[in-house]
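User: Here's a protein and a ligand (adenosine-5'-triphosphate). What would the complex look like?
Assistant: Let me lay out the input and then the predicted complex.
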Amino acid sequence: MSREAEQKRVNEVIKEITKKEEKLYTKGSGLKDTIINLRENFWDDVTVNLEELDDIIETQASIKQQAELLIEREQVHGNIDKELKKLKRLKDSPYFGRIDFREKPDDEPEYIYIGTASMMDQEQENFLIYDWRAPISSLYYDYAPGSAQYKTVDDTITGEITLKRQFIIRDGKIKSVFDTGLTIGDQLLQEALGDNASTSMKSIVATIQKEQNKIIRNERSNLLIVQGVAGSGKTSAVLQRIAYLLYRFRNELNAANLLLFSPNPLFSSYIANVLPELGEENISQSTFYDFLKNRISNDITIESPFAQMEYTLTATNRPEFGARLANMTYKSSLEYKSLLDQYIEDLGHEGIHFRNITLHQETLISKEQISEYFYSIDKEISLPNRMESVARWLLQTLRKVQQEEKNKDWIIEKVELLDKDDYLEAYHALQRDDGDETVQEEDFLRKEVVKRQFAPIKKRIKRYAFVNILASYRELFRTWEPLERPDDWEEIRSLTAASLSKKLLTWEEAAPYLYFKERLLGASNDRSVRHLFIDEAQDYSAFQFAFIRHLFPYTRMTLLGDVNQAIYAYSADENPLIPDSLEQNHERIILNKSYRSTKQIVEFTQKFAPHNTSIEPFERDGDKPQVIKPAYNSNITETLIKDIKQLRQKGHETIALICKTAKESSELFQTLKDKVSIREITEQTYTFEKGLLILPVYLAKGIEFDAVIIPDASQENYGQESDRGLFYTACTRAMHDLHVVTPGKPCKFVNEAKQETFEITNI
Ligand SMILES: Nc1ncnc2c1ncn2[C@@H]1O[C@H](COP(=O)(O)OP(=O)(O)OP(=O)(O)O)[C@@H](O)[C@H]1O
């Protein structure tokens, strides 16, 4: 088929789309009127009568019926809306690929056109467009012309691809069309990757690579681990995977069943457009920090991972620094989990702290009584089940206390404070009864008052507030003696006890503390989450992973990350991304090809990557990275301003000054802000616009920029071996240009890069 013939087909498909749109518009607007009508006249069609019990029941039924009708119409309207949005997308660009496939050598090949959604012809017989997630579409991503096969739900279909073609269609016009081999669209990829960086991520649907497709379409693994080098498309692939799963399991899964842990709030907004672009709803997203914070009572503060990072990098002179590092390493390990398990085991016999149940500062049931009851229960029974029995016992006991309190004098004082409605209610209740009204009325009011006074206490019991988790946990560091003392135990112990007494959980303590809480009170395992995706998985500690597994025992997981970008020193050990660190059954996929940065940037950075991973650049050329030595008599601010100007002249829209710490970032921001238009990104920044930005490296995780300037790549700033991951992560954020400024001696990582991979300049 020639280009003209292809354009003719595009025109025909668009005509079909327009017809469908028109039909849906008519249906939709009719429905809209009905809905407005239903809402406006809701009460006209409901029979309201509240005289007798029977009437009330009838009224309820009538309201329910009317509401259901409205909901049903609204749902249909919602579906029409969704379908119209899909058609609008398709009208602009109906498809991006075509394969001709035949099952037998003598057959006529079938033309399969692939786009972001399926569409059939008027007769509902033939697919004009196949959804990229349909089984047959996998041929497009997995094979070059020649023998090929694909899996349907219960079969494998083999055959031959006789043609593989790609399109770029915009506004219904074919911009380019070309036939290709296996790698989809070197040309297309070149175009996509050569563009300016965007402030929101784009879908890669038209150019998914074979290796990435394995991640996207993986259905069999309960635990899928992806180690992918910087810029290899892990985040892109996981978002496509989410869209794929929502399509493939559309009858069983919806967006609420999927959860994504992302590295920082900026990243969350950066990726927010991808799923809607693919016609899917966004799924729940959270940073792990927010996830933990939501599970901890309000009176306890958790240090953020960023604050912890900042501490590690800037507080090296503090007297407690060594102890804190030891604490981080230990609390991140599975060794600590075993110790905690031992402690919990001991608590099964004695030592849990309880709280008094009080009313107006008077103890109704004492913590000693609760403890006695708890430890009288069979020790074979699990702690959470014993807690449940205690809660039941407390509620029962409380009922008796409530009965006694009802007749006490203080109650009548409260009765006097009741409002008019309460009296009225009491009066109506009594109307239905015969008997001595005054006695009954007082009794009724007393009952009501006492019930109200006890309601919050009961609520707290149901929430297990009678267990003092913090005090129970703190005892581990105050009085408990482990069988074997871990290294640095004394320092760890006093450091932890001190911060717990301030109700402060350091970041390394947060997951262990919550694990402890869950073990005592029972896991609130969230069974609604069927798939969990963890991006930047290299930054999670072994303990945090164990906790996540504990919380989601039945959830399928996809972990994606890059060991080279581990920025928390302690997370490097026992991280699931490192082969052999995991005992559980899992499947591992490795991505070696880097798409983000130019070949020149990849060649520069790969020499100082922390691990010896093979990194293959995608063939996209640019200028060599520059190592800028400030000219003899210029100051660093002038150098940076000149450099920014040069990068702007090259047409870069998003330029990031990536610093090592927030401290460096905000100090530099202060000196630059009156001289150039620049935006500082902090932990609280949720979105960003194009332009000049300044931020610490840990907030740049997962994001990319046209050009990156490292404002201080001196040995003084990046002098520790533990800075390697940070420096590597910062450099690999650059798509087209990387400039490394080195006031003083360049850091050792720059020296490790091959001489021929960079240029030295003086500004
Ligand atoms: N198949 C592809 N087609 C087009 N672009 C792609 C493809 N794969 C990756 N890219 C592009 O490469 C860049 C990097 O992708 P992404 O951010 O998903 O990588 P990553 O592995 O998560 O990176 P990092 O670990 O460094 O944060 C993005 O601009 C993305 O659009």
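Summary: The chain has a mean pLDDT of 89.
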